[in-house]
Design a protein that fits this description.
heterodimer, A: alpha/beta, 12 helices, globular, B: alpha/beta, Urease, subunit C, domain 1, TIM Barrel, 2 domains, five-stranded parallel β-sheet, 10 helices, aspartate carbamoyltransferase activity (chain A), EC 2.1.3.2 (chain A), pyrimidine biosynthesis (chain A), Asp/Orn_carbamoylTrfase (chain A), Asp/Orn_carbamoyltranf_P-bd (chain A)
Chain lengths: ~350, ~450
């Protein structure tokens, strides 16, 4: 792996490898000194063309825990807002010696442009591009699901996949990079995915995706789900006739208190409720659902740092060998044993 | 016809791919066709293995001048045209200022005369400033020295049905034609690529086929209602081919064009996010490509139009959504059409002459172009080596645009010579000299 651009082309072995490495990394986060020397002297640039404090600080924390130098480049208020092109920005970062570029961009495919051109020779991590993909979000979601799924079967999560897990993803699929990255990664990991949305918020062509599609959230819940992921929906979408009103949206496709009760009534005691954040409480998710013990929202945030540490480590450490079952990872030798605190 | 164009004896050219014959060109016309011709003082060109075809006529070219001379000029664009086998091009109206007055179309016409590489026939805008609100002075453009017969807001659809109806009616007064860029604007707000399986995965806003087809359906019915002539630019979908076929069966006076890139490329290429594949209308699916080929072969689609659209490199070296739409096409059209239509057995060279020259000249009402290769006809023809193979390198083209979607591809067919009004603008596959008449036409003569 030279870049992490999408989950569509992420192999099962690489996906498992990132998730397993993230398990190791999460142990670091539980220590008093939350730092590894693995990327000392390497420079990671957070290149953000779109506001996203949550994702940016998650990547920043991940890079700093690996001892990398971090440069935050927010396109707003910089030369980019004065009309500098992506090419010139990339070449500038290249001249400054960036080893990895974490890019968030409003335009689908912008990370692919950085990776495919000779503008910059750095590892590129897609931190969300337009309505295309958000691979680290899908990986942290899978990480969260995998821990839950493994715990239910009484095993450790390392090396496991999501075979047999039923995942519903509900909301604005059309405009969601999170949904796309999740569909591909969950397919790769063997989960059964159902997309639930108003027909207006599903892309033309969704019928070719490796998942089921439903317009009925209640029916989907009644059919049984192990994880329900609610997607953020923008209230302004109603102005473009994607749905009549936020109230109607909420009644039909929001995870409200009635649906939270329905999980209990249906006997689905182990079903988790996920949300990539930021949440619109009262629109796609009720406060009771967001705050319920089923909610994994904060665990997702916590796991995001571990997954991003794993991605940065694997892309920058030069350790491109396929994972060997019993080989200690290279970073372990450079730090006090991380195994102890697992 | 001009004198001073010299005498040329072309030996052994296969006219429309038929039996080899000799052509004698003198004083701008084809003086004689026969075998074993011999003329003292003639420049002899050995055309063994070459096919003679009528000079190609492009119904759809963006020469960018006036206004965007950093993208292309009349001089560079017409050099590219000559190298590509063209003897006439229709220069689209979306220049700056817009070609919506007699003054601008005469300027473009005069620049074309002064360049001397091909006939430049300006297309007039349908509406003032391409704004879609008020008819431009179509009659003044028709009566100008540029003798405009084709009118188009190309790049923008004349979407107001009343305005479109009036335009169709009005141009009947001077045998004009409205060339429609069929794109329903509300269905394509922010559109980036064909809407379908690939756009769903890539997260790029879709340009649905129905946005083209619904306008074509409306326009053929309007043309029928008012008894007018309609031309449909760059048809890109299988559904559009069906609607045009239906309209022609009903006797509606509609003609249609397809670009070379829509005959070969599909939206799968967008997976690279490389904006060299960004074009309007967008690249479609393989089913569309096959329907367009079939439509061109059976005459539903009348002509090939390049939609040659050069852009400065900074408009393509960027994010997909930021990039300009358009591809160069003049210097690759013949090869792409040979590859997609002739080498596949769908068409003959005689068909090629029809779709690249005869029918195109008829749509634009060009009396001296698209003529048969016969004695007494104007000497607008090309010599093509169909056995040649070449690899497309945009940096070796005459156009200023480097945005060729065929870069790096090996294609068949090479234009060896282009005769424009009796003068070889291209010889041995390279630019020769402009027509001598050009020297007598100062660029500022308008």
């Amino acid at each position: 792996m030279k870049h992490l651009l999408s989950t569509e082309d992420l192999s099962l072995s690489n996906a498992i490898r990132i998730l397993d490495t993230a398990e190791e990394m999460s142990a670091v986060g539980e220590r008093e000194v939350k730092k590894l020397p693995a990327l000392r002297g390497r420079t990671v640039v957070n290149l953000f063309f779109e506001d996203s404090t949550r994702t940016r600080i998650s990547f920043e924390a991940a890079a700093k825990r690996l001892s990398a130098d971090v440069i935050n480049f927010a396109a707003k208020g910089s030369s980019v807002s004065k009309g500098e092109s992506l090419k010139d920005t990339a070449q500038t970062l290249s001249a400054m010696g960036a080893d990895a570029v974490v890019i968030r961009h409003w335009a689908s495919g912008a990370p692919h442009r950085l990776a495919a051109t000779d503008w910059i020779d750095a590892a590129v991590i897609n931190a969300g591009d337009g309505t295309h993909e958000h691979p680290t979000q899908a990986l942290l979601d899978a990480f969260t699901m995998r821990r839950h799924w493994a715990r239910l079967s009484g095993t450790g999560s390392e090396g496991t996949d999501l075979k047999g897990m039923r995942v519903a993803i509900a909301g604005d699929v059309l405009h969601s990079r999170v949904a796309r990255s999740n569909v591909w990664l969950l397919r790769t990991l063997g989960a059964e995915v159902t997309l639930v949305a108003p027909p207006t918020l599903l892309p033309v062509g969704v019928e070719k995706w490796p998942c089921s599609v439903s317009y009925d959230l209640d029916q989907t819940l009644a059919n049984g789900v192990d994880a329900i992921m609610m997607l953020r929906v923008q209230g302004e979408r109603m102005n473009a006739s994607f749905f009549p009103s936020t109230r109607e949206y909420s009644r039909r496709w929001g995870f409200d208190d009635n649906r939270l009760r329905a999980l209990d009534d249906l006997g689905m005691t182990d079903t988790i409720i996920m949300h990539p954040g930021p949440m619109n409480r009262g629109l796609e998710i009720s406060a009771a659902a967001a705050d319920s013990p089923r909610s994994t929202v904060l665990a997702q945030v916590r796991n995001g740092v571990s997954v991003r540490m794993a991605a940065l480590y694997l892309l920058l450490s030069g350790d491109t060998r396929e994972p060997a079952a019993h080989r200690a990872p290279a970073y372990a030798a450079a730090a006090p044993s991380t195994k102890e605190s697992i | 016809m001009a004198a001073n164009t010299g005498t040329y004896l072309i030996q052994g050219a296969a006219i429309l791919g038929g039996e080899p014959a000799d052509l004698l060109v003198r004083d701008g016309i084809i003086a004689e066709i026969g075998s074993g011709l011999s003329v003292d003082g003639a420049t002899v060109i050995d055309a063994a293995g070459l096919v003679a075809l009528p000079g190609m006529v492009d119904v759809h070219t963006h020469l960018r001048e006036p206004g965007r001379e950093d993208a292309e000029t009349v001089e560079t664009g017409t050099r590219a045209a000559a190298l590509g086998g063209y003897t006439a091009v229709h220069a689209m109206a979306n220049s700056t200022p817009v070609a919506d007055t007699a003054g601008v179309v005469e300027q473009v016409y005069t620049l074309g005369r002064a360049a001397g590489w091909v006939d430049v026939r300006p297309v007039g805008a349908v509406t003032v400033g391409l704004a879609g609100e008020q008819l431009a002075e179509l009659g003044a453009m028709a009566d100008s020295r540029a003798r405009v017969r084709m009118f188009s807001d190309d790049g923008i659809c004349v979407h107001d049905p009343v305005l479109m109806r009036r335009a169709l009616e009005y141009v009947k007064a001077f045998d004009g034609v409205v060339a429609q860029h069929a794109q329903e604007p509300r269905l394509t707000a922010g559109a980036q690529m064909n809407e379908g399986d690939v756009s769903a995965v890539l997260g790029l806003t879709g340009w649905p086929a129905v946005a083209e087809e619904s306008i074509i359906a409306r326009d053929v019915l309007l043309a029928q209602h008012v008894g007018s002539r309609l031309h449909v630019c760059h048809v890109s979908t299988a559904g559009s081919v069906e609607i045009i076929r239906w309209a022609k069966e009903r006797g509606i006076d509609v003609t249609a064009e397809v670009t070379p890139h829509h005959l070969l490329l599909t939206d799968d290429l967008v997976r690279s996010y490389d904006p060299v594949f960004k074009v309007n209308p967008p690249l479609r699916t393989d089913a569309d490509v096959q329907a367009l080929r079939a439509g061109l072969a059976d005459g539903t689609i009348d002509v090939v139009g390049t939609d040659h659209a050069p852009h400065p490199s900074e408009h393509k070296e960027c994010e997909w959504a930021q990039a300009a739409m358009g591809m160069t096409g003049l210097e690759t059209a013949l090869s792409v059409v040979q590859h997609a239509m002739i080498d596949t057995g769908l068409m003959t060279w005689a068909d090629f002459a029809r779709v690249t020259s005869t029918a195109a000249a008829k749509i634009g009402r060009l009396s001296d172009q698209g003529r048969p290769i016969e004695a007494g006809e104007p000497a607008n023809f090309i010599l093509v080596d169909p056995a040649a193979r070449w690899t497309v390198d945009p940096f070796r083209m005459a156009t200023m645009g480097r945005n060729s979607p065929f870069a790096g591809r090996e294609l068949p067919g090479k234009v060896v010579a282009t005769f424009f009004k009796g003068h070889p603008t291209v010889l041995d596959g390279a630019l020769n000299t402009p027509h001598p008449e050009a020297a007598a036409t100062p660029a500022g003569a308008a």
